[in-house]
Amino acid sequence: MKLKFIVFSSALIISTLVLTNCTKDEGKAPVVTPPPVESCDTITYNKHIKKIMDDYCVSCHKNSSDVGGVGLTTYAEVKDRTQAGRMKARVIDGVPSFMPQGGQLSSSQKQLITCWIDKGMKE
Known about the structure:
Blueprint: H1 2-20, H2 45-56, H3 75-83, H4 86-92, H5 107-118
Helix pairs in contact: 2-5
């Protein structure tokens, strides 16, 4: 009886490990690692932020006739929404927490956007 329990427990553990490690990460956006805090001045929309917008936001916000009348495909559009406080409130602070629908941003991506905002939103 004890041997059956050990065999069953071992099989259950191995099955769980195999199943949880067999997921594919295809289609997920790469994680953007923010630069050290002392180089926040070098963060620009074109080099750092545009990729995040393209990966997480543009699928719903291609132009101003899309979701909520908000287009996020250009620097001017993103800067406008950011200056209005919408980017920080909806994407960084998560109010409401359903954005972005392309998957939640990692803490490093949020830090990168916050740094960009704090340093003047350079193009």
